[in-house]
Amino acid sequence: METQTQAHNFSLPLDFDNVSTLPDSYAWSTTTLPSNDPCHCTNNDRKSSLPIIDIGDPGAYDLVRHACEKWGAFQVINHGVPLSLFRETELQTRRLFSLPTE
């Protein structure tokens, strides 16, 4: 019986512990978005920032919808979720994705 090796095409996950800058392949470009895009960014470099939505903003619903349609992702501020919950979620997520695939 002959053993065959299969090639798998997949991307390795970004190693957040050892990467100090965001690789270009992970960055969004805003060149296709209109200049009056209602989702604002944290700095003047709109090419490297996600839309940031203040959940306390009366128009947050529309901003979330817009960010989903135009960007596919966004950051929420003033949500009231404790940092400890974020840390625990990240820990459990890392545990999950470090499990063997089989």
TrEMBL record:
A Pfam family matched in the record: DIOX_N
The keyword Lipid biosynthesis is assigned to this record: no
InterPro entries in the cross-refs: DIOX_N, IPNS-like_sf, Iron_ascorbate_oxido_reductase
Domain of life of the source: Eukaryota
SUPFAM superfamilies the UniProt entry points to: Clavaminate synthase-like
Alphabetic keyword roster: Iron, Metal-binding
Domain (Non-haem dioxygenase N-terminal) ranges: 50-102
Official protein name in the record: Non-haem dioxygenase N-terminal domain-containing protein
Organism: Hibiscus sabdariffa (roselle)
